[in-house]
């Protein structure tokens, strides 16, 4: 089984990312269940805007798209800014929009029989809004969203330290992340055994 984690931090490599740090907890839990994990930091790719899979020469998105189709599990990880997903997360969602019109050889949307989850970090409130925003888009594309396939960390309202700067709440976020990994693998295994059929004609 394979998973791809798309980190939608605004920080370019090699700068430390709080979102990447929490995602690493989930990645470790997935690897502990035998899942191969690929991590993509989307901001490093300079993904151009658009709603097509391939925008031509120099577009890095087709390689990301291949990773999506080679994986049974997708995790979108985003910081919270002004209570919203990062602009990078929105760019990823916009490029994934092309998947709505792509089908496999049996006529199924290409995201069918794949599962997805969401990770959110921030030193302000808004995590549930971001989880719902991203999960709703992924579900529209055809991904199955298992129950509680998410984790988040935030300090609460007002300015304050970030995930890597504070121990407050990290135990909960990390245990929830490990449960998220378990739920994703269980749902992906169930879909592999009993795939969703093509939509009725």
TrEMBL record:
Pfam families assigned to the protein according to its UniProt record, in alphabetical order: FMN_red
Residues that span the membrane, as ranges: none
MF annotations from Gene Ontology: oxidoreductase activity
Domain (NADPH-dependent FMN reductase-like) ranges: 1-150
Alphabetical list of InterPro entries matching this protein: Flavoprotein-like_sf, FMN_Rdtase-like_dom
Recorded superkingdom: Bacteria
Protein name in the entry: Flavodoxin family protein
Species of the source: Actinomadura spongiicola
């Amino acid at each position: 089984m394979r998973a791809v984690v798309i980190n939608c931090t605004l920080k370019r490599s090699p700068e430390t990312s709080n979102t990447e740090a929490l995602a690493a907890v989930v990645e470790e839990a997935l690897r502990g269940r035998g899942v191969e994990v690929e991590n993509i930091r989307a901001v490093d790719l300079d993904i151009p805007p658009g709603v097509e899979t391939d925008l031509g020469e120099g577009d890095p998105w087709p390689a990301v798209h291949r990773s999506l189709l080679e994986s049974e599990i997708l995790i979108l990880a985003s910081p919270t800014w002004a209570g919203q997903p990062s602009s990078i997360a929105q760019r990823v969602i916009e490029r994934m929009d092309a998947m709505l019109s792509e089908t496999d050889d049996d006529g199924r949307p290409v995201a069918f029989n794949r599962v997805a989850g969401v990770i959110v970090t921030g030193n302000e409130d808004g995590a549930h809004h971001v989880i719902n925003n991203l999960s709703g888009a992924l579900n529209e594309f055809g991904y199955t969203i298992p129950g509680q396939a998410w984790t988040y960390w935030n300090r609460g309202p007002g300015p304050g330290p970030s995930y890597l700067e504070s121990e407050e709440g990290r135990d909960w976020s990390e245990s929830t992340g490990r449960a998220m990994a378990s739920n994703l693998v269980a749902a992906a295994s169930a879909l592999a055994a009993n795939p969703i059929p093509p939509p009725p004609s």
